[in-house]
From TrEMBL:
This is SLC13 family permease. GO terms for biological process: potassium ion transport. The chain crosses the membrane at residues 28-44, 56-75, 95-124, 136-161, 181-201, 400-433, 445-464, 471-493, 499-518, 530-548, 568-588. GO terms for molecular function: monoatomic cation transmembrane transporter activity. It comes from the Bacteria.
Amino acid sequence: MTFEIWVVFLILALAVVAFVTERVRHDLIGLLVMVLLGLTNVLQPDDLLHGFGNRAVVTIGAMFVLSAALTRTGMVSALSGKLADYSRGNPMRFLVFSLVTVCVMSAFINNTPVVLVFIPAVLTVSAKVGMSPSKFLMPISFASMLGGSCTLIGTSSNILVSSISDGLGQGAIGMFEFSQVGIVIVFAGMGYLLFLSFRLLPDRVTIASSANPEAAKKYVTQVQLARESNLIGKTLGETPFGKSRVSVVELIRGEQISRLGRDTPLELGDILLVRGDLNEILELDRQHSVTITPGLKPEVGDFKRVEMTLFELMIAPDSNLIGQRCSAIGFRQEYEVSIFAIQRRGRHHQREIGEIELKLGDILLVRGSIEEASRLRDSNEFILLEGVHEEREERHKAPIAIATIATIILLASLGVFPISVLSLGGVAVVLLAKLLTPREVYRAVDWPVLVLIAGMIALGDAMGQTGALDLIASQLVSAVGSLGPHATLWIFYIMTGGLSLLILNKPAAALMAPLAVILAQQLNVDPKPFVMAVAFAASTAMATPMGYQTNLLVYGPGGYAFKDFIRFGLPLNLLVGVIACFLIPWVWPF
């Protein structure tokens, strides 16, 4: 191997480690990859920056804007808000309506805003039907992936694979070309979700979603058992909490949040999240050696005549707070709320909150006035996990947004104009119709995603130019090529799917699509089946939270653990993979 190949493999290894450990922001990984490739002279500047001018990057950026414009019309929130009425209190009916709606919408607009709008709606409806939101949120995320796999614009990875295929001389993929296999996958996947969601998914409850509506009129705070407390070793029924009008909402023990059972003995250092009349809480503080957490004591007097509530805020995908430490944001000064805890991927962080850097999908457990909760409902930084996330809506302009997206789909399907040109035209219509302001258009674009994609395209180009891809393909052909193209396709699909589960689907698609073409050429077969295998494997990465962005979005609100995605998502991943590997060679022969 040449020096350049060693360098490329080293950069690839470092990138994979960075993705898996999540110590570095994803867009920063893409940026660092480009910097390393430039400093080592593996790529020249023009080739290094080629990813920013890639048609896929332009198209994906434009589709972010078009999805935001359609969301602004209020159609998505209106549909999600009506589901409770349509379901008539029946959980299964609600699940069916939700999955079908999300699946269909995700085939034509970016699935991230669809899932974002549905999260607070699901929390509200699940409380009404008396079921945990964990029974609904993961299926909704998976349904968005299934729907997105059916069309070119349904997911960013499909657009990326199509662009790479076209750039390598294999032709672009048609708007509905994915549907020939995607529809079969949708029916099989939806059957799995409908029949097994309630059986296999855990019954998890997050703190704020478990509080009843009357909690808004009561004081909510944390009390901690002091070393000299006479409550240590007693169960809930033996403590004053069982007799007073102060109720225990949750028990915080170490890094875990759980309900406090009546027979669970209390331990030194336990933190109890309690709700009730302020004076009764203070009386317990005086008489029973429970201590209101120190950070809250100076503020107690300020809230005696203010109706306080406890609510959860999820960090939005485009939030400016991502990457900032809590102590540097100034929540009390800026938003007039106090943070109790941060929940990240099923784990509770209550100590040294100020030093934690916020990430996408983090859940902030905060206390504030009811008026402040209403104000934060309109913030672009958070998603209020209570009711539908409302914002300014332009419902009278819904026909314009729908007609724009429909025209793009029609003309792209007929091959009249390239999808990149059509999508930019759609952005121009959005601006001319004033569906979004210029500032909102730029804000709608997920720039970190585009930087990440550009960096991975540069890495893929470097692997192609240095001969690294040829080396990997030749080794793969030597190992499994004798088994024939069908068996090789199955193995290649598994490789792509595994990589997608580790490093997100878009980087995996950017790296594996060029390899698909070279591998097929060395096998002397048509590259199309291998290219399509990359598309389907990358767009259905369900078995880990980091496989797809919508999984990260539902991770916190659903109260899921990592193993929940493996337990529920891996069988569906395998089902989709088997269907895809059987049908792809039949639809696109070798």
